[in-house]
Design brief:
It is a single chain. Helices cover about 70% and strands about 10% of the residues. The protein is mainly alpha-helical and about 250 residues long. The chain has one domain. The longest helix has 25 residues. The termini are far apart.
Length: about 250
């Protein structure tokens, strides 16, 4: 087992355990980490809206969570995809994060891409002060590490980022199985209820679907990150020994 693989596994499991303990034991410290996942959740709604031919209008981060304003085509499937984008978006982003963290160069590219997306959001999409603060902190951190950080720091931060997004599935476990909730004095449908309204079935069916999709994405990303296999090595590599050709004596 290589030293690099050992390090990746140590950072991955260390981040996973430490963050989970913070969620359970020190929620006040875990709050900023949950805000990161919330930000990606709302961005997921917006990007899903763009992918189905709609328009991502605004993103808000609030004291109770956040919301994205999306103008989408009048289609039940499009509406369901937009709602699902926020629920499975963090896990898909975590999958790419874990895959990128396997190589220092890919980690740098990943963090640079995150920074560019945040610049786009800050310039055109974020509509309130809290959102600006959250995006600004993430942007500054990602940019600094991508531009000035060592290879090992880029990989460590990329893994840590992915773990936060992966654990958002745990943080959202109650929301996934909620049909309606109250925020700012208004009764609102949850994303899974919106999916049920747009398609068919009860909200908890779509909660299970989103969990399965999210876990599949996370498992794929974690496998790439933690696997010791690499192209051109291992059992599939054949070593052919050179054998000198005997010369015929005169």
């Amino acid at each position: 087992m290589s030293k690099a693989l050992d390090t990746r596994r140590m950072v991955f499991f260390g981040s996973l355990i430490a963050t989970f303990l913070l969620y359970k034991l020190v929620p006040s410290i875990a709050g900023p980490l949950i805000l990161l996942a919330t930000f990606v959740h709302e961005t997921g709604h917006g990007i899903a809206g763009i992918l189905v031919g709609g328009e991502f209008l605004e993103l808000h981060v609030t004291d109770w969570g956040g919301y994205a304003t999306v103008a989408r085509p009048a289609s039940g499937i499009a509406a369901a995809i937009v709602s699902a984008g926020g629920l499975v978006g963090p896990s898909i982003a975590a999958m790419f994060s874990f895959a990128a963290a396997r190589k220092p160069r890919l980690s740098r590219i990943f963090l640079g891409t995150v920074a560019l997306i945040l610049v786009w959001l800050l310039l055109f999409k974020i509509a309130n002060a809290r959102g600006f603060v959250v995006a600004g902190i993430i942007l500054a951190s990602a940019s600094l590490v991508a531009l000035k950080g060592s290879d090992s720091l880029n990989q460590t931060v990329t893994i840590f980022f992915g773990v936060q997004l992966a654990l958002s599935l745990y943080a959202d476990r109650h929301y996934l199985f909620t049909d309606y909730f109250t925020a700012d004095g208004q009764r609102m449908a949850s994303d899974t209820q919106n999916m049920a309204d747009a398609l068919f079935g009860p909200y908890y069916f779509w909660a299970v679907v989103c969990i399965v999709v999210s876990l599949t994405a996370l498992a794929a990303g974690a496998y790439v990150l933690l696997s010791g296999k690499s192209k051109g090595s291992g059992a599939n590599t054949k070593v052919v020994a050179a054998k000198p050709v005997a010369k015929k004596s005169d």
